[in-house]
Amino acid sequence: MHSKKRIILLDALRGFALLGIALANYPEFSLYNFMSDSQHAAMSTETVDTWTQWLLLLFVDGKFYTIFSVLFGIGFSIIIRNAMERGADGMRIFYRRMTGLVIIGFLHLMLVWSGDILLLYALMGMILPIFYKKSNKTVLTWAGIMLLLPVVCDATIVMTGVDPSKVFYDAWWYWNGRFGITEENFAFWLRDVESYDGVLKFLFAGSFERMWEFVSSHRYFKVLGLFLIGMYIGRQGIFSSVAQYKILFKRVALLAGCFAFPLSFVYAWSGMNGHPWGGVAHSVLYMLSVYPLGMGYMALLTLLFMRAEKWRLWNILAQPGKMSLTTYLSQSLLGILLFYGVGFGWGCNLGLGETALVSVAIYLLLTLFSFIWMHFFAYGPFEWGWRMFTHGKYIGILKKE
Description:
mainly alpha, single chain
């Protein structure tokens, strides 16, 4: 495939992933996820919200961060290859890039939203160079191990009764107590807060909650495993010549449709009913449905792209994909503006179905913004700063520079 077409496809996949990430994240921005079951039941939107939750678990949960993680691994291979083609030190550039992402992720976590994923991406990304010179077999073997380890860890916790995430959970509630955040006001704290200082208190305590979530879900293993799959895909040049791998894409799509999608119904049922078969079984369902279905989405979109390369859909999806960091951070900033007390204070007032509609509207707004911005500029605003940090020099942002 021509380089320009390949880049449009990867950007379109990234843009598509950002839509799913908005759908997954906005139930937390709207504070719906922080409300109790009894509070949900008291809402007039309960029936619609229940169906929305089913659909999110079935089609969204985990699938889009799977796509984004695989694309991150592909990007690693592209960065190293391009740098070496220019005679530059690819590893040095990559580590500077990840250091910049550590800074961005940390600031996002502590100042904007405790659901940040960028910091984890940066830290796990720093491990990728270890595998750069390893054989394809070794890379895929380690990818499989990383994706299997969460199941092994969950089983070990059940057998031993030792939960390494508990220390972060206890720290989270210790700091909540220090700040006056209780189980009774937890859901409404950010809606009722009148100053940014109150937001910062919630975010500081929430940073421990985020660590608890990462450790209890073993997210670091999952992310690294998906990174390694992406690295393998990038190394093989699969998206550089997709026509050559058409049979592979068909097989992945078929596997997702015939195996992962039916299992995703079981996964959604388990999630809706409080994991009745236990956490280990739910973890197995996650592994067997979420990863392959996410990659199935990628395969289906790629097959569709090969059949209809001239559709305007690809250019539309590619715009937020070109400035994915800016789009991701903007989703957070707009979430604060809409739902927190320092903004419009809509939190806890919208049902899950309404929240999903808001997230789609935000995505469309940011897509429009991306179109306008990229008409004049070569990089998104946050991408521009990140790029200058990475290369240690001023880089022109206007297209004519």
